[in-house]
Design brief:
Elements: H1 2-15, H2 22-28, H3 30-46, H4 50-64, E1 67-68, E2 73-74, E3 79-81, E4 87-88, E5 93-94, E6 99-101, E7 105-107, E8 119-120, E9 125-126, E10 131-133, E11 137-138, E12 143-144, E13 149-150, E14 158-161, E15 166-170, H5 189-228
Parallel strand pairs: 1-4, 2-5, 3-6, 4-7, 5-8, 6-9, 7-10, 8-11, 9-12, 10-13, 12-14
Antiparallel strand pairs: 14-15
Amino acid sequence: MFKNLRDDINSVFERDPAARSMLEIVFCYPGLHALWFYRIAHWFWIHEFFFVGRFTSHLGRFFTGIEIHPGAKIGRKFFIDHGMGVVIGETAEIGDNVTLYHGVTLGGVTWDKVKRHPTLLDNVVIGSGAKVLGPFTVGKGAKIGSNSVVVKEVPDNATVVGIPGRIVMAEEKKADGRADLQHGQLPDPEAKAIACLFDQIRELERKYDVLAAEYSELKNKIIGQSIQEPRK
């Protein structure tokens, strides 16, 4: 237990440059508090004290604004940055060194009592406001851009953006195994599609200008020939 607590605190130091001291982290980081509420609630849940587990997670939601179902499975060094509005469903599974920003939802798409929430493997980073919906796997080192809506499986080390989420970059695994989510460097698939349309329009305009010039030349030639022909 104490090793997990130490890992939780160290993960904040590693991934938040604003963190200045252990005291600040322990008392001022709601993502850390929500994780600790979850660990207590999860202990009750796996020992079949279901009401106590749900009530403990409800207290965590009340105090932090982060809702983690006690039935979810979360690995080591999990970090929620800022955290307000994060929702993690009952059958979600989260690996080690995963980072979520505020407003992320790991949700389901069915009312059946089956595996209905996503599985995040190690070193996944999910940007603020993103929604990952369904019982599929997000591969190791994958990155999901802010406000994306992901509804199908993501391979290892891929970057996904958009609504619905599209894979826009497949990267090699970093030496340290960790992913960075630098939104300023993420490609924009919609802008790329619009740029392609503009390229096609410019090409059509070029062809039109060529055809118009040929038509004008042909027209002038026909008119010139008709003037030069002798009248019968």
